Amino acid sequence: MAQIIVDIADMRISKNPGDTLITYSLGSCVGVAIYDPVIGLGGMIHCMLPLSKVDREKAQVRPYMFVDTGMQQMLTRLYEGGLRKARAVIHVAGGSQVLDSQGVFKIGERNFTVLRKILWKNGLLMETQEVGGNRSRTISLDVGTGRFTIKSGGRITHYDLP
Description:
The protein has helices at residues 56-61, 67-80, 107-121, and strands at residues 2-5, 10-14, 19-26, 30-36, 41-47, 89-94, 128-131, 137-142, 148-152, 155-159. By secondary structure, the protein is α+β, with helices and mostly antiparallel strands. It has one domain (2-159): CATH 3.30.1330.200. The strands form 2 sheets. It has a 5-stranded mixed beta sheet with strand order 1-3-8-9-10, with no helix packed on it. Strands 2-5-4-6-7 form a 5-stranded mixed beta sheet, with helices on one face.
């Protein structure tokens, strides 16, 4: 059983049933896990900022840093791997205000808003969403079973396939 760490501004895809995709410390960042249970394909991304237009050069080098460019690239790679929209199980977590208690920048909220728009434009629905608040989260996706797990504040929540 291999644990594949998805770093900040990173994305990973696996079809190996022994793999678990995991990303840590989702504060204002947003984490998305997408799974196709028929072919056992899973992907996970950890995005920091909503829109790549703030730094187009950085978006060229690190597209997964941004929700808009990262999600489009992840979806393209998943579709190339055989993902079908009708089978996609999507889990989302993060988007909190960990370092912005006054709500000045609202990075987490903006990340989630851009993500929702991208999913909507692609005809995709979220199965699970745990966003907002003021705590960080760690998420994982078991590629063999499709089980999605959120760890936050000493609490562990498991989501099995619908």
